[in-house]
Design brief:
mainly alpha, 107 residues, globular, 7 helices, Leucine-rich Repeat Variant
């Protein structure tokens, strides 16, 4: 339990970091955790996605694009676990439909 708590704290720290490269690391860590520990992510989905939804609307287009790509990858793994956070995700995704960057829009 201590190890899981520390891992989640690390994820939160990375996802809310000032540097865009560090935020990218957080997005990649979330992807990795979804693949290796989907139960941990499912159990803590609301708290995790409070941080992750911000990356979907990130000011840095590379972070935003990667977050959208990761979301597409993890949706299948998390399935019904996403129910509590679906409204926030839809709002975040919708904001990107009007992006001037075609890669962000496509993601």
């Amino acid at each position: 339990a201590v190890e899981e708590t520390e891992l989640l704290q690390k994820l939160y720290h990375l996802l809310e970091a000032k540097g865009f490269q560090t935020r990218m690391e957080g997005v990649e860590l979330l992807l990795d955790l979804c693949k290796t520990s989907p139960q941990l992510i499912s159990t803590n989905i609301a708290q995790i996605f409070d941080y992750f939804v911000l990356r979907i609307s990130d000011s840095h287009k590379k972070v935003k694009q990667r977050a959208l790509d990761v979301l597409a990858e993890i949706t299948g793994a998390l399935k019904d676990a996403l129910n509590p956070v679906i409204i926030g995700l839809v709002e975040g995704i919708t904001k990107n439909l009007n992006s001037k960057d075609p890669r962000v829009r496509a993601a």
